[in-house]
Design a protein that fits this description.
Elements lengths: L11 H14 L17 E7 L6 H20 L8 E7 L4 H13 L5 E3 L5 H12 L3 E2 L24 H14 L4 E7 L2 H16 L3 E8 L10 H6 L4 E5 L2 H13 L7 E4 L4 H12 L3 E4 L10 H13 L7 H20 L4 H10 L1 E2 L6 E3 L6 E2 L2 E6 L12 E7 L17
Parallel strand pairs: 1-2, 1-3, 3-4, 5-6, 5-7, 7-8, 8-9
Antiparallel strand pairs: 9-13, 10-11, 11-12, 13-14
């Protein structure tokens, strides 16, 4: 089962805390699930995300990003005066629900493209897209969604991939002198893909991966695994898991003293999770993230994106998921403008040729699988008291620019090359 990002054991208290924190950082505005437009000629944007459940906070911020994309497109005149409207739907982190919502948006609402899904719905909706033939921009962190057997020309994967994020982490930690490495890996698709991406890149650089300790999805006690890790005497522990699994593992690693004996790293960290669990659990942990708002100190496109988001969200800074929501909608909208058409094949052709810099530096879509080739940020947790604001929780250590060669190869994905 392609259960990327599922964490069924997340408590309702934690979910409420995440949502409260995230919405506070975004100005505590209520987020509508549907932007109405009266024109019959409106360009209809289907947007699907798990707005309720353990990733509701991330989805709500993602929706803010999507709203900003629609606003920018409309403020610029739309397509010859035709404006866009956003039709948002909640998939509830359920594959069947996601597929149902996609069919409704396509058949009843006549949307021109679908954006936004992550989690299991990203895969079930992809099956619908293949049969219906409209452009689709999911943000799942996955390599397998790009497999040739799953793929169609209408898929433009806007999210990062484990090969890109874990590979960037491996190259960074090796440059910092990591020699003996152990991996703690969640034993399901997400963890397995992260572990594979890290191992491939690290071994190219001459790493010695001395062991891998696996745990089940939803583990709550890692203390029984720590003696096995300590016995291997690593100087670096790479934690290949996500969400509550990651938060609990980092908290317990700190409590059991692992940080005094080795460095800790995680291939993917999320802004909202770091905000909830605080600096203590994440202190000293190196990781990767797709976007961080402090990029505005370096990039004009990030500064412009942040300013637009703040104006919409009551002054709050965008999260990584807000940026992905923006990208998943603005790319097909701009393709529509470039093609001067909402015909699916015209959108596909335009997107295939696009060279982008909307919010994080140069991006493009790789020819074989339409994967978004983009930068990865290597970050370390910092105490927000030392930053510019209460949500200044990461320090950017390095930026690895996007390159086709840093993705899983087209051949390995099953494409003829």
């Amino acid at each position: 089962m392609n259960d990327i990002l599922i964490q069924r054991h997340a408590s309702s208290l934690s979910r409420r805390r995440v949502l409260k924190t995230a919405l506070a950082s975004a100005g505590a505005l209520s987020v509508p699930t549907l932007l109405h437009a009266q024109s019959a000629k409106a360009i209809k944007v289907g947007f699907i995300a798990p707005m309720t459940g353990p990733y509701g906070a991330d989805s709500q911020l993602e929706l803010f990003g999507a709203q900003l994309a629609v606003k920018q497109f409309n403020d610029a005149g739309g397509l010859n005066g035709r404006k866009a409207e956003l039709l948002a739907r909640d998939c509830r982190l359920n594959a069947g629900e996601g597929a149902t919502r996609a069919l409704e948006l396509i058949e009843a609402d006549k949307v021109d493209f679908i954006a936004g899904p992550f989690g299991p719905s990203a895969f079930s909706i992809n099956g619908v897209i293949k049969s219906k033939g409209i452009p689709y921009t999911p943000i799942a962190n996955s390599d397998s969604i790009n497999n040739a057997a799953e793929w169609s020309k209408y898929l433009f994967h806007e999210g990062l991939t484990p090969t890109a994020t874990a590979g960037a982490l491996a190259r960074h930690v090796m440059s910092q002198g990591a020699k003996r490495i152990v991996m703690l890996t969640a034993d399901y698709v997400y963890g397995q893909e992260m572990a594979a991406g890290f191992r491939t890149a690290a071994e190219i650089k001459g790493a010695q991966i001395v062991g891998e300790v696996k745990h089940s999805l939803g583990a709550t006690d890692y203390s029984t695994l720590f003696p096995r890790i300590l016995a291997l005497k690593p100087d670096l522990l790479v934690i290949n898991n996500f969400g509550r699994d990651q938060q609990i593992a980092l908290k317990q690693a700190s409590e059991f003293g692992l940080k005094s004996k080795m460095k800790l790293a995680a291939p993917l960290m999320v802004h909202t999770a770091r905000m909830v669990d605080g600096h203590k659990a994440y202190e000293g942990v190196t990781g990767c993230i797709g976007y961080y708002w402090r990029l505005e100190d370096r990039l004009a496109s990030a500064k412009a994106f942040n300013e637009g988001f703040r104006a919409l969200a009551g002054g709050g800074n965008p999260s990584d998921y807000a940026a992905l929501g923006f990208a998943s909608v603005i790319s097909p909208l701009n393709a529509i403008k470039q093609a001067n058409s909402t015909a699916p094949d015209a959108i596909v052709e335009a997107m295939s040729k696009m060279q982008l810099d909307y919010y994080k530096g140069p991006q493009h879509y790789r020819a074989c699988d339409h994967q978004s080739v983009q930068s990865v940020l290597i970050v370390e947790s910092q105490d927000a008291a030392k930053g510019k604001s209460k949500d200044d929780v990461f320090r950017i250590l390095a930026i690895e620019e996007g390159d086709d060669s840093r993705l899983k190869s087209c051949k390995d994905l099953g494409f003829a090359v």
